[in-house]
Amino acid sequence: MVINGFVTQKARHWQGFLTRSLGIGLFILLLVLPQLSFSQTAADEANFVQCRACHTIGGGKLVGPDLKGINEKQDEAWIIKFVQNSATLIASGDAEAIKVFEENNKIPMPPHNLTDDQVRGIIKYIANGGKLADGEAAMATETTEDRVSGGAIHDPDEEVVAEMKRADMRNMRNTFLIMLVLMLISIFDLSVSKFIKARWIHIVIILISIAVGSELLFVESAGLGRQQYYQPDQPIAFSHKIHAGQNQIDCQYCHFTADKSMHAGIPPLATCMNCHSQVKEGKKTGKKEIAKIYAAFKNNKPIEWVKVHNLPDHVYFNHAQHVKVGKVACAECHGEVEKMDEIIQVKELSMGWCIDCHRTKKVQFESNRFYDQYTKMHEKLKNGEKKTVTVLDMGGEDCQRCHY
Q: What dihedral do alpha carbons 9, 13, 18, 23 form, nearest 10°?
């Protein structure tokens, strides 16, 4: 009897322990899930770059007011409206918006193409004193301003999207790990210990875990072999934003084989030296990065650039065919590189993405002599059978065009 009583007491102890563990686990999950889609990341810091030109956080008034404590002074919904389009809010007669406008020399704040969640992220960033939340600071190995050595500032648009997508994947994996632990506890209790009598708790946890795991499996499988949002470090802090954006150097000045060859090509050092034999110092990086070009040129050693946009070996893609014949702009596949300091693969570059372009892209058929050989198609255009021609009309879905 004493032994049975002792065993019963221990069983109750373990039953209580497992019940509390599952309860705490579910409570944590319910707290974490709403935050997973919107956790403070380096993207919030990147978005705040747009504000930094006119505002400080605790540093006093600049062009606009000091933003320290703005989350306590103003309602979140009002801040979102004001940031997205202050002029509209002022025109509507909003008293607070008019007051802010008049207190700051009637200098209008330009509208910002930010979502509600992105503005909320900026508010959290300001509330945290202009610092990332604990754990995120270590994850963001470089600040947005210092992404390129010397402090070149990024245009946040595509980088913000890339960072948000990376954060989403991290959050999804974290959710899966939490659910996996809860599922293992549930399965153990359901089949071995059987301390928790309410079987529906186990079933709910297992079903949610399977659903989360299935979604993660689908996302990871769909992205297998793809490199969307890939952003490797390069041996030299070369800024496309400065060269292609500020200096307006044409893409094909450096990538001069893009309209002649299958590959766009990485420019040789001789191309760099066309300008840098005279330009020996940059405004952002000083002499440090340009000195690496001189060292490589002097030692006749090629710079080992890391290729960003990679297609599988079984895919045939010809740059000349798209650039010279198709008149496809570089940005359609590579994004707005003139706004990037460090290149990011922003497009998916999957087979479905390519085929969708083939189905919708209008071909400059009549003005391009390359298409003179398509006599039947020209006849259809003349007699009104077709108004436009797409790549699809010329075999754009034929497997052997890209796989042979």
A: 120
CA distance linking residue 247 with residue 239, whole number of Å: 11
* DSSP code per residue over 165-232: HHHHHHHHHHHHHHHHHHHHHHHHIIIII-----HHHHHHHHHHHHHHHHHHHHHHHHTTT--TT---
Judge if pTM exceeds 0.85: no
> For the stretch 345-368, what's the b/e string if a residue is b when 16 or more beta carbons lie within 10 angstroms of its beta carbon?
bbbbbeeeebeebbeebebebeee
Cβ atoms of 179 and 206 closer than 8 Å: no
- The superfamily in CATH containing domain 42-143 is Cytochrome c-like domain (1.10.760.10)
d(CA 107, CA 292): 44
Domain map (residue ranges) of the chain: 2-36+164-222, 42-143, 229-347, 350-404
* Of 84-98, 125-139, 301-315, highest mean pLDDT: 301-315
Query: Please, which residues bridge with residue 152 across strands?
Result: 148
CA distance linking residue 250 with residue 247, whole number of Å = 9
Helix H or strand E encompassing 297: helix 288-298
Q: How far apart (Å, rounded) are the C-alpha atoms in residues 320 and 252?
A: 11
The answer to whether the beta carbons of residues 136 and 42 sit under 8 Å apart is: yes
What average pLDDT does this structure show over 330-349? 91
Q: What is the pLDDT of residues 205-214, one digit of tens each?
A: 889 888 888 8
Phi, psi dihedral angles at 282 (to 5 degrees):
-105, 155
Contact 130, 119 (CB under 8 A): no
Residue 316's pLDDT is 94
Among candidate residues 281, 344, 324, 341, the one with its CA nearest the CA of residue 154: 341
pLDDT tens by residue, 318-332: 999 999 888 899 999
Longest dimension (CA), the chain: 101
List beta partners, residue 148: 152
Contact yes or no for 204/182 (Cβ under 8 A):
no
Q: Reduced to 3 DSSP states, what percent helix, strand and coil does the chain have, rounded to the nearest 5? A: 55, 0, 40
- Taking the C-alpha atoms of residue 299 and residue 237, their distance in angstroms, rounded to an integer, is 20
- Of how many residues is the chain composed? 404
